[in-house]
Specification:
Radius of gyration: 14 Å
Number of helices: 0
Order of helices and strands: EEEEEEEEEEE
Helix content: under 10%
Largest sheet: 7 strands, mixed
Shape: globular
Length: 128
Amino acid sequence: QVQLVESGGGSVQAGNYLELSCAADGPTFNDYDMGWFRQAPGKEREFVAAISWSGGITYYGDSVKGRVAISRDHAKNTMYLNLNNLKPEDTAIYYCAADLRRFRSLVLTSNSDDYNYWGQGTQVTVSS
């Protein structure tokens, strides 16, 4: 059974830093693009970042560009999201996702419909 498990969320003050992890349990995700999304209360799910299967290509949402970094470790079958200079508007549930329908894709996508596996989410709360 394919499973994605996020960790690393928490409650921090504005300006601080968090590192989120997404561990893939099951068949290897190393040949597929992965991404992070977030959803704040009362808002639609928002694209945060995506990374290619090789790790060589990254893509960021406009609201977080310059403050976050996505990476992956093939040996650990794990993806990471470093969140820097956190703001109260970053408060949301953060989800990792994998696009297992496109083997070694060369084009990253910010469309949540293109990701067919999702984790349960990890809460990030930023206070001012």
